[in-house]
Design brief:
The complex is a heterodimer of chains A (about 270) and B (about 270). Chain A is an all-alpha fold and about 270 residues long. In chain A, about 70% of the residues lie in helices and about 0% in strands. In chain A, helix 8 runs antiparallel to helix 9 (about 175-185) and helix 12 (about 220-230) crosses helix 13 (about 235-270). The longest helix of chain A is centred in the C-terminal third of the chain and has 36 residues, at about 235-270. The mean pLDDT of chain A is about 85. Chain B has a two-stranded antiparallel sheet. Chain B has a domain at about 55-85 and about 140-235 and about 245-265: MetI-like fold (Orthogonal Bundle). Chain B is globular. Chain B is an all-alpha fold and about 270 residues long. Chains A and B meet through helix 1, helix 4, helix 5, helix 10 and helix 12 of A and helix 1, helix 3, helix 4, helix 5 and helix 7 of B.
């Protein structure tokens, strides 16, 4: 792949430059907008003539905004932790144990993966109401603690680990949970990193379910609050773009840090399915 | 599996909002849906969206992946730059694009500069341009993520295949045609299927940018389900609509697997 003729290389380079600029321009616009004071709807400059941090200082002094950020953090982090633990346990079960109905059970996990989430909003909404979880952290967290993709990813990864270490631990009297937490999880770090990123990404950015399953202002997550903010007439664009930037930054930073791992993990996960 | 069955069950009922009671009405919801102009418009718009975005998203993703993989200078800048929009919240992207598409926004100005006429009230408030504008936005946002998947697949192709091809006297094009492309078939199928499932459920952009308007020109299937179920609170009718959408998505995915999967994809 590295030996393209020069004219193809130049064409690819120009295409790449063009696509990258196109991709990054909207985000630059957001960042630029968050640093310009007192602008109205259409008047954000491409290059700000003076920088102002008022938008950010507003957000970090507004208890409502901090609450949205807090809600998003609580929900996303809880869901990530839940997925890491539960997917490893269930994935371990599928990878190492034989039990009647295992094939059917695993096939149904894969089938659930194919169910489009937005198509089941109504049954889920009614279920959450029935359980009395509507408009609470439970609604933002509990239904999402495990997902089929995570189970699939962990089963694949654990199947590829050599069983000898577990066998040795078992001879020494270790139980299943000890094996999962002390042996499997450390060994499965690359897969867990990918899973953590994927789950965090989904939940941090999620809109439809947090929107449908909560109603009070104090339960709103950041994306929901941002989407509803647009409806207000007297909206301050600097504040809106500052909040947007705060919403965009965590995933971008996480991606930059774990890039290599995420890409190699995608190889392992996506290609096998 | 439970929600699916429950959804099917609900779809046979009429829900009375005031009393909250359910009345069994058989398949009446389904019959009504197929003569409901709004629902048919929503299905039409959703299909246009899916068919009109996926080819571009996939091709852009492939070109970007090939380019990033060619070890050009600056690749460490390009890769994250391309991925950033796709990992940013769709709400945030939709807010930004609402600005860019507004009557005096930069996209309109750019189009004017190229001599393309722009509706006076902005790209999102004209029924002729609203859906297309959202589609273009979706392509720009989504392709970076699929590029990552392609990139992962490209890096998985054994290098000795290229060396062998070179020994046989293959040029750049032959190597691409006979080594790279066949190896990308499984990931292409995967990308097509997940992108189809995602695109059929397009909602956030619509909610933030247009609320289905103007004149239903951006009304999509999930927005219809949301509007009927959670604004008008007719959950039986909304369930039936959701179920039809589910069946359409399942059929599309099955077709893609059949036509694009073939035997080679399993290698």
């Amino acid at each position: 792949m590295k030996h393209y003729p020069p004219h193809i290389k130049i064409t690819l380079f120009i295409a790449l430059l063009f696509m990258s600029l196109l991709a990054i321009a909207p985000l630059y616009y957001m960042l630029s907008g968050s640093l310009q004071e007192g602008k109205t709807f259409d008047a954000i400059d491409i290059i700000p003539d003076s920088l102002s941090l008022k938008g950010y200082s507003f957000i970090f002094s507004s208890s409502r905004m901090l609450r949205y950020i807090f809600n998003s953090l609580v929900a996303s982090i809880s869901v990530v932790i839940g997925n890491l633990i539960l997917s490893t346990i269930v994935g371990y079960g599928f990878a190492r144990y034989r039990f009647p109905g295992k094939e059917i059970l695993f096939a149904s996990v894969l089938a659930v993966m194919m169910i489009p989430p937005h198509v089941i909003i109504i049954p889920l909404y009614r279920l959450i109401n029935f359980l009395g979880w509507y408009d609470s952290y439970a609604a933002l967290i509990i239904p999402w603690l495990i997902n089929p993709l995570g189970v699939f990813l962990m089963r694949q990864y654990i199947s590829s680990l050599p069983p000898e270490i577990e066998d040795a631990a078992r001879v020494d009297g270790a139980g299943d949970l000890y094996i999962v937490f002390r042996i499997i999880m450390p060994l499965a770090k690359p897969a867990l990193a990918v899973l953590a990123f994927q789950v965090f990404l989904t939940n941090w950015n999620w809109f439809l379910y947090p929107f449908i399953l909560t109603s009070s202002d104090s339960m709103r997550t950041l994306p929901v609050a941002l989407a509803l903010l647009k409806g207000y007439q007297s909206i301050d664009y600097q504040q809106m773009f500052s909040a947007s930037t705060i919403s965009a930054l965590p995933v971008i930073i996480l991606f930059m840090i774990f890039q290599r791992r995420i890409i190699s993990g995608l190889t392992a996960g996506a290609l096998k399915s | 599996m439970f929600p699916l069955l429950y959804s099917l069950y609900l779809s046979f009922f009429a829900v009375d909002i005031l009393s909250g009671t359910f009345k069994f009405i058989g398949i009446a919801n389904y019959v009504n849906l197929f003569s409901d102009g709004d629902f048919l418009t929503a299905l039409k718009n959703t299909t246009i969206f899916v068919v009109g975005t996926i080819p571009f998203t996939t091709i852009l993703a492939l070109i970007a992946a090939l380019a990033v993989n060619a070890r050009l200078p600056g690749a460490s800048f390009f890769k994250p730059a391309l991925v950033m929009p796709s990992i940013t919240s769709m709400v945030v992207m939709a807010l930004i694009f609402t600005h860019l598409y507004s009557p005096n926004g930069y996209v309109g100005a750019l189009l004017n500069l190229c001599g393309i006429p722009v509706p006076e009230n902005g790209l999102l408030l004209s029924e002729k341009t609203a859906l297309t504008s959202i589609m273009v936005m979706d392509i720009l946002i989504a392709f970076g993520y699929y590029m990552l998947l392609y990139l992962a697949a490209l890096q998985n192709i054994p290098r000795n295949l290229y060396e062998a091809a070179e020994l046989d006297g293959a040029g750049a094009w032959e190597k691409f045609r006979y080594v790279t492309l066949p190896h990308l078939k499984p990931i292409t199928l995967f990308i097509l299927v997940i992108n189809t499932i995602r695109s059929f459920q397009i909602f956030v952009e619509i909610f933030v940018m247009t609320k289905g308007g103007p004149l239903n020109s951006t009304l999509t299937a999930v927005y219809f389900v949301y509007d009927v179920g959670f604004v008008k609170f007719d959950m039986g009718y909304a369930s039936a609509a959701a179920y039809i959408l589910f069946i359409i998505i399942a059929l599309f995915s099955a077709l893609q697997m059949k036509y694009f999967g073939g035997r080679e994809a399993r290698t």
